[in-house]
Amino acid sequence: xxxxxxxxxxxxxGWRVEAVSPKPYGLKPTYYSxxxxxxxxxxxxYGPLVSREVRQPDVTGQSYFEQVKRTREMLRSMDxxxxxxxxxxxGRMNFFEALALAKKEGKLIVPNFVHDRILTETGEHKYFxxxxxxxxxxxxxxxEKPDVPFGEQVIFEGVTFKVVTFKVPKQFRGKINCAxxxxxxxxxxxxxxxxxxxxxxxxxxxxxxxxxKQDGWHMPDAETGIPRGKAVxxxxxxxxxxRLKDSSYLGPVAREYGLGxxxxxxxDLYRWSSNGSGVALVPLATAPKKSDxxx
Length: 295
What we know:
Oligomer: single chain
Radius of gyration: 19 Å
Mean pLDDT: 80
Distance between the termini: 68 Å
Number of helices: 6
């Protein structure tokens, strides 16, 4: 089975993530860097990230959550070529900034399962090169170190921010080698001050059992696209998982096409939330107005 390898080292300015051979698709690797952006220093661009209720019903009578549900259903049912016409890619920003921008504009950060279909079911390489040189999705994943059960909270220490924490609901405590998945906007980012943050889930949490303990090819979860289960051989249906081996993780799934190398089937749960990447947003869908009946 072909393997994917990574190298990383701490340099001035942040983490350097390098692609090193051997690789899963047999192409010559290209070295590249993802430069981190300091989370706290960039918040002023969109205003402070504080817990504030902004989810109000729209003029059609639909609640915010109804619009979110409808948008997800729409994205899941649409042909990926059509989806490409309705999502909007931003400039490079970190996950903190992406959450603030989506909240300000009342939009949905496109989830992993949508990006997965675009990357694996369409083939416009020019589009990939323009938009997929590192994209943070709206799919948030929380996992512990291999063979370490979930406790009361998961703590993730980053490079350009101090700490992000997540309080684990009681029904998931004690579970081993599992991952928790929450889709935007079913969670909130709370700024605790002093460059410390907390993620609070406000809606459904999806449990991924048999979350892999190491990098490799696995079949994706049908709902979220997160690799799970036993290792499998490389195939068009399998996805390659990148994960941290000696640390917990609390952050978004990242997807990309790559520079000089095809990463379209790689699900990246290794990238720091504070790294600057692209983000795709989509306006919330509303139900069509009913036509008046005429007798």
